[in-house]
Amino acid sequence: GIDAVAMCVNDILVQGAEPLFFLDYLAVGRLVPERVAAIVSGVAEGCRQAGCALIGGETAEMPGFYGPEEYDIAGFAVGIVERDKIIDGGSIIPGDVLIGLPSSGLHSNGYSLARNVLLELAGFGADTYIEELGQTVGEAMLQPTRIYVRAVLPLLERFEIKGLAHITGGGLTENVPRILPAGTRAEIRLGSWPVPAVFDLIKARGAVADSEMLRTFNMGIGMVIIVSADQAGAIVADLSDRGEPCCLIGKVVEGQQGVSYV
Known about the structure:
The chain is an alpha+beta fold. The protein has nine helices and eleven strands. It has helices spanning 2-13, 33-50, 111-121, 137-141, 149-158, 171-175, 197-206, 210-216, 229-241; strands at residues 18-28, 53-61, 71-80, 97-102, 129-130, 135-136, 163-166, 184-188, 221-227, 247-254, 259-261.
């Protein structure tokens, strides 16, 4: 449930908008009230974290279309931003700085590869405890997506935020370039932020190339903020004062739209 909310509100946030409300749609093969309540409680928790209202939804029981243990959840969110405050990346120039906010784990993306490596190639079960993770495989894979509304909204009020990128499917490699103007490129410093152990485990057990990892997973960065170099220090200090960890992970340079790793 939290993941469904997070994917919507984080995508709204990168436009500079404050999420207002969320609606969900839940389809199940067999309606089990306790299971539905657990899922919807996750949606409600996601809305609390995002500061938006859960104003309604729909639950459909569809035997024959879904298996008895299967369900599908979708939703959408509405947010608001003044027209002249919309963040579209148009003011980004070479020399601007990339600040990364950490992810909580896989963040709803890359699960086909993660399942293949951890559950099939490595032969782990969901309840297999992995020492380097400090938890079971299932717990690591089901870690809820982080919602960045409370971290980012205060920055929009106090600073000039030039660009925001929600790092979802496609990783840093494909998501950051979407907000860059023509003639600019992101140069990201590998090793400038801590990578969660789950990604190291997937890479090692699956012999996955670095380029594929960076194109598939968030690799520990769930949101990228692009700001002018002269504001970066104050923004990092503001986040730190509010208990929000962050890392300076790179800069904008001249070049063809894309990402270079150094």
